């Protein structure tokens, strides 16, 4: 077992967990997959429904080219194979919020094939998750059960909204890795601009397939590709937060272990995670593909892409998080940790790059990651809500870099910027906050302190660490404006010779 193996103890010994995830990512598009109806979040019920979405007789679906482009872009961002020939199928099942009686999806021939992404664990170590496929499909509507004790209401606003279903291989081995994978995938989608990734708004949902096995069985599976070495998997449907993903996996894995060790058999089924109780409960038996009765959609021709068009999309891809992290390390000289933190969020990375433009990148990184985000987290704000602009923080960093102000005074200026706004240089000038670099002025203060405190001065020669008291007194006397480096140099010269 690797250093990162995740095991659960049982009566019969340790158990390991194996997971593959199916991520449903809503495509950023102003219109649905096969209709022109709007897709904005929060609209009044049934206000964004076309005749196609409502399955009116004779209405034909028309493919949204922009959605296809978004899917191709996502596939390229996942280092995956783009299939220039793909096909839409009808996936037949009954649900009240599915007026067609089928979902248009891609079964045998998806638009994107195999790929891989590199993910990062909590300790900074990395692992790779293989992507099996990405296919396009329609979302269903929404059934609402809590408006009336005797009735179910149906909202078809989401009916027909374009989804990308991204299916991973069973490469995920712990709850930590599962949430890291979803987080990394979400980051890539946001960088690409193909999915907003807001799990609270339903823009990204995870179906987590969980099974358990004895140590060594997974390695045999990877060697042979034979699923007989793995346990029976259960699918946890529509988990909508990273924290819930971890909780659901922990509970479900233990549930399966308990069943097996008590002599029972795990049934393959679809389950739901109850966030209030922290348990999974049975939803329905897991249908096999043939139970859905897939067949090619007779209203849609196969989707054929020109390679030149795919190449154009590839050429226009933005810098993705892994490449950005590597550039932050190799070009800007950041630590791998700081670079990873910055690159993990598109908005944070963009903010940092504006702050660091033409300035000390390490200093800019410290201010963005520590001071700024420390304050944002304390206030419960995001970078998009930040009252201090990147230009303002960049100006503050420049003042520290050219020694106009000290780091301590910079924190005071930051507070002013946060509360009142303004230009950092103007604030420093008008409020007399410039750092004193005049060695003569600093020396005069030092001489006076030594004269007033001869015993303290004598003790520094025996205990050099005691010089810290003098540093503090000089800074106090000069209202924190003295250049700390100059203060230390003068004190060393005067007290230690």
Describe the structure.
Strands 1, 2, 6, 7, 10, 11, 12, 13 and 14 form a nine-stranded mixed sheet that branches. This protein has a three-stranded antiparallel sheet with strand order 5-4-15, with no helix packed on it. Strand 12 (234-239), helix 4 (242-261) and strand 13 form a beta-alpha-beta unit. The two termini are 59 Å apart. Helix 7 runs antiparallel to helix 8 (336-343), helix 9 packs across helix 10 and helix 10 packs across helix 11 (390-401). It has helices at residues 65-77, 175-192, 217-224, 242-261, 289-292, 307-315, 321-330, 336-343, 346-356, 361-379, 390-401, 407-420, 424-430, 439-452, 454-462, 467-477, 484-496, and strands spanning 7-10, 13-26, 85-86, 89-92, 102-105, 115-120, 126-138, 142-148, 151-155, 162-168, 204-213, 234-239, 269-274, 279-285, 295-296, 303-304. The radius of gyration is 30 Å and the shape is elongated. It has 497 residues and is α+β, with helices and mostly antiparallel strands. It folds into three domains: 7-312, no CATH class; 319-430, no CATH class; 439-496, Orthogonal Bundle (Arc Repressor Mutant, subunit A), CATH 1.10.10. The mean pLDDT is 90.
